[in-house]
Design a protein that fits this description.
alpha/beta; Aspartate Aminotransferase, domain 2; Aspartate Aminotransferase, domain 1; 2 domains; 3-stranded antiparallel sheet; 43% helix; globular; binds pyridoxal-5'-phosphate
């Protein structure tokens, strides 16, 4: 037997409390019993999203909630600014095109965060831009975009639509306080659940826009969902077992305290970055790293895909790969969700061993010690 460690940025490990909650006996979804559980979940989600508005629970992966943001807020031919600095920026671009919007693409070098000046320039050149579509955490490049600062630019202008799939529950992204207009996530990340739930919340001005938006929508009609979910049921059959699990995972997050949850993610990310640097490895996003995952360039002569196969098949460790132009060159170590200090140490110790096996110059313990120095904070 090889013990398995899931250290990828989604799906992420699931705590026992959540597993057990999902095994509860099925109930009907249009009953007072379900409405009670759902109402508890909806309150917890509001706290997590930092909003007084509804957080709607959809039966889809995160991309479904991204699609819902687009189909509910726009009319055909409207112009939007898409920040494209990785695979998920590309996804905003694809969705906008499919729905007949006119996306203006703001390309960002992979591994870098978008510059505020570049956003300002685009808004000046295209005063008819209706919204900015961006990731808070671009998981494919492990970059954190300056969403808070961008929100200051959009208060009386275009809507700010944020893919928070590896941001919500990882770091603070308070919708109301920052003035975000749509915030999206999925269940298989910081919420410590299996894939299958898409979550979305809208600002008041986004709700006003949704009334006028002319794009077709049916399954993801958020107006219908809001009406139903306020009454204690979803418009269509919800993912009942995942919602049982969500209640348990929100309870775990509340018990830890959200600020501590964010501090834990930040600490694991700092420890991993310190370890990589101590091992002489280069970070993919040294300037604006996301606390969700750490991208690390592999040394010359080491194919990261082969290294990842070895880590998974021989050592039981699953990290994530590099995509497109990063294929074969980087690895991504995740810190999202049910992760603690010893997951980070397992990750670094395994990386040292695998790199040694692949002939890279590694001195055992250098990365581990650097991570331990940071992780001592856990014991304060
Ligand atoms: C930033 C980001 N956006 C969107 C998605 C897509 O979510 P899903 O795979 O749940 O559709 C992911 C998934 O990893 C992601 O990391």
């Amino acid at each position: 037997m090889i013990k398995q460690y899931l250290l990828s940025p989604g799906p992420t490990p699931i705590p026992n409390e959540v597993q057990l909650a999902m095994a509860e006996t099925m109930i009907h979804h249009r009953t007072p019993q379900f409405a009670k559980i759902f109402s508890e979940v909806r309150e917890g989600l509001k706290e997590l999203f930092g909003t007084k508005n509804d957080v709607l629970v959809l039966a889809s992966s995160g991309t479904g909630a991204m699609e819902a943001a687009v189909s509910n807020l726009f009319s055909p031919g409207e112009k939007v600014l898409v920040v494209n600095g990785g695979k998920f920026g590309e996804r905003w671009l694809e969705i906008s095109k499919v729905f007949g919007l006119k996306p203006i693409e703001l390309e960002v070098e992979w591994g870098k965060a978008v510059k505020l000046e570049a956003i300002e320039r685009s808004l000046k050149s295209h005063p008819d831009i209706q919204a900015i579509l961006i990731q808070a955490s671009e998981t494919s490049t492990t970059v954190w975009h300056p969403v808070r600062e961008i929100a200051r630019l959009t208060q009386s202008g275009p809507l700010l639509i944020v893919d928070g799939v590896t941001a919500v529950g990882v770091a603070r992204v308070p919708l109301d306080e920052w003035g975000i207009d749509a915030l999206v996530t999925g269940s298989q990340k910081a919420l410590m659940l299996p894939p299958g739930l898409g979550l979305i919340s809208l600002s008041n001005r986004a709700w006003a826009r949704s009334e006028k938006a002319k794009l077709p929508r049916h399954y993801f009609d958020l107006r219908l969902e809001r009406k139903s979910q306020q009454r204690g049921a979803a418009a269509f059959t919800p993912a009942v077992s995942l919602i049982f699990g969500l209640r348990a995972s929100l309870k775990l997050m509340r018990q830890e305290g959200l600020e501590r949850v964010y501090a834990r993610h930040d600490r694991l990310a700092r420890a991993t970055r310190a370890a990589a640097t101590a091992m002489g490895l280069k970070l993919l996003a040294p300037e604006n790293p996301s606390p969700a995952a750490t991208g690390i360039w592999m040394p010359a002569g080491v194919n990261s895909d082969k290294l990842l196969d070895f880590l998974r098949d021989r050592m039981g460790i699953t990290f994530a790969e590099g995509q497109d132009q990063l294929r074969g060159k980087i690895i991504r170590i995740a810190h999202v969700g049910y992760m603690g200090a010893f997951d980070a140490l397992v990750a670094i110790a395994a990386l040292e061993m695998a790199l040694k096996k692949f002939g890279a110059p590694v001195e055992f313990g250098q990365g581990v010690a650097a991570a331990q120095d940071v992780l001592m904070e856990t014991l304060e």
